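Tutorial handout. Part one gives the primary structure; part two gives the three-dimensional structure as tokens.
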Amino acid sequence: MEETSGQLAPKVLLIIGNGFDLDIGLKTRYIDFVKSEDFKPMIDGNHSKYDYFHDFVTNKNKMQICPNGLANFVKKEEEERKWVDLEIDIRDYCLLHESETNSEAIRKELFALRYFLFKYIQSEKCKLKIDNNFHTKRAAYIVIEKLVEYNADYNIWNFNYTETCEKIFRHKNVPEETIRNHIHYPHGSISEGAKKEFPSIVLGTRYDSKEFKVCPDAIKANMKSNYKEMMNLFQEQLMDANVILIFGHSMGDTDSQYFKKTLKASENLKIIANINYTDSKCNEVKININNISDDTFMPRLEDGEIEYLSFSTEGLVEKYNYLNEHKEAELNAFLKHCFTYDYSNLRLDV
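Part two.
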């Protein structure tokens, strides 16, 4: 970005949820996983085509092969509700068995669920292969493209497991070191999971009650060794940001511990911008932001202390699911406002 005299590049914190991957055409919904072939072995107990998994189960006795009660519970819930939220299902399954002494069995079932989700996310359905005539017209691609073009001072917190962002940055010829230094994975990533003794990713629930003792491994905070370090880094960057750009993240209860302490306290924050599927989803996120900031967001919004912007990807060309010319121009203006705002009058540590 070309800076005018005294103008500073904005400090942008980009928060990415699954809507980012969905926008660019990947099959990364939990319901896609539950309906896939990668989920079936936990239901029927047939792990023969997963030789490494079968060997791990039989020789190291880390988990039971069949039946997987947690997987069957998730499948039953999906059939009744027609949607899937694994974090909620894990919580409900654990609470359903809280009076029983079966934490070890649940731990094994949860371990298996993580593994097979990992294998699914590794599949071709969840990998981005950029086609210039297709993906570059997606909102997800354009957001990353504009971060680069406007030379924003950005940090990205990707709550997905995929490395879609990296592929877009590489397509824009961003150096690998820059990519590594600016993208963080609070839930782990496919590449991180592959380096473990047994491949897996962070999957669990967020449940604050001290009475939740059925399966401590189910608590998401326990699943990444550097959880506290990452939490502190996220909160530092959140406090320092002028712009929080949310793409496809609900800002709901599951990840609220990342935002709760600092969202209401940031003095540098000028804009909260939200990109989501529909207008109603954008409004839902606005309500969730107010909830996790202990009802302090709306008053700051009304006082003009913070500006809230939303962009809905409604209006895509339905057949191809990319932005039409009008919607693309609207998104470009939206991002230009976020990434070129004059922040020099704010109290910044520079």
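Part three, for discussion. The chain is about 45% helix and 10% strand. Residues 190 and 201 are 7 Å apart (CA to CA).
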